């Protein structure tokens, strides 16, 4: 009996180091895999963060804004998932976006690039710009001058005229205008079925659907999701720590994006 208990005790001692070295590693690895799995699911099906790198959506989105995008607003397509993996054709659980919503979509000419613009034209619409004024289905979009604004871009001060535009669905949006540019006078864009027409709120500094060879009409499959709010805002590079903390725009954190 004594020998039996001694043997059991010895076996237990011999096994202890093995348990201590293997199980914690397995547990950590499994935890990492589960965390990665849920992060991918949330990012693919619920909300995804994006960073605004340009001034094309001034004054509503600024350089350095970090936004959340609702991925289930319009259903899901291949571009809802990492790397644009094509699990199915078209969209599933789809719903129709509303004119005036700010949307992230994949650039038709290069689907690896995400773009953020405002939805202006729905399938079947006719869109035209005349002397800087927007026309939708031959109806002028009324805009009201509300003052001027000066923004700092690339260490330069740029002045804009600020307007309040009223879309056909009565939604009011703030836009910037600077001067007459080629994209302020266009032909008529007829939006094909299953496609959408997007424009930047900074009308003279936005490469959008008016540039047919680069953006043009956006297929519904390319829609990623609707912008909901700004969760952080800082114009400094994330690597410039000293300036980064000084320039946080606290007043923009949590702000809802004008939908």
Identify the notable features of this structure and list them briefly:
globular; 2 helices; Umud Fragment, subunit A; 2 domains; 259 residues; seven-stranded antiparallel beta sheet; single chain; 34% strand
Quick structural overview:
By secondary structure, this protein is an alpha+beta fold. Helix content is 19%, strand content 34%. It folds into two domains: 1-45; 46-252, Umud Fragment, subunit A (Ribbon).
Structure description:
The protein is α+β, with helices and mostly antiparallel strands and 259 residues long. It is built from two helices and 14 strands; from the N terminus they run αββββββββββββββα. It has helices spanning 2-45, 241-246, and strands spanning 47-51, 65-70, 102-107, 110-121, 126-130, 133-136, 139-140, 143-153, 156-166, 172-177, 189-190, 195-199, 218-219, 223-233. A seven-stranded antiparallel β-sheet has the order 1-2-14-3-4-12-13. Strand 6 and strand 7 (139-140) form a beta hairpin. The longest helix is centred in the N-terminal third of the chain and has 44 residues, at 2-45. It is globular and about 65 Å long.
Write the layout of secondary structure elements.
Elements: H1 2-45, E1 47-51, E2 65-70, E3 102-107, E4 110-121, E5 126-130, E6 133-136, E7 139-140, E8 143-153, E9 156-166, E10 172-177, E11 189-190, E12 195-199, E13 218-219, E14 223-233, H2 241-246
């Amino acid at each position: 009996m004594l020998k039996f208990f001694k043997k059991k005790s010895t076996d237990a001692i011999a096994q202890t180091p093995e348990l201590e070295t293997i199980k914690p590693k397995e547990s950590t690895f499994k935890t990492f895999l589960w965390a990665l799995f849920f992060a991918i699911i949330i990012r693919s099906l619920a909300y995804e963060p994006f960073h605004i790198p340009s001034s094309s959506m001034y004054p509503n989105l600024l350089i350095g804004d970090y936004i959340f995008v609702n991925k289930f607003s319009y259903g899901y397509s291949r571009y809802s998932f990492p790397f644009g993996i094509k699990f199915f054709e078209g969209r599933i659980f789809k719903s129709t976006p509303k004119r005036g919503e700010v949307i992230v979509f994949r650039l038709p000419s290069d689907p690896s690039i995400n773009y953020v613009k405002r939805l202006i034209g729905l399938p079947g619409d006719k869109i035209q710009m005349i002397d800087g004024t927007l026309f939708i289905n031959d109806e002028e979009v009324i805009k009201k001058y509300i003052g001027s604004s000066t923004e700092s871009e690339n260490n330069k001060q740029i002045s804009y005229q600020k307007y309040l535009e009223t879309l056909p669905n009565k939604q009011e949006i703030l836009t910037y205008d600077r001067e007459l540019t080629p994209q302020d006078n266009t032909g008529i864009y007829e939006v094909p079925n299953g496609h959408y027409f997007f424009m930047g709120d900074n009308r003279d500094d936005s490469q959008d659907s008016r540039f047919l060879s680069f953006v043009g009409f956006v297929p519904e499959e390319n829609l990623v999701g609707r912008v909901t709010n700004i969760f952080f805002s800082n114009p400094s590079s994330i690597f410039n720590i000293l300036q980064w903390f000084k320039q946080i725009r606290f007043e923009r954190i949590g702000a809802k994006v004008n939908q």
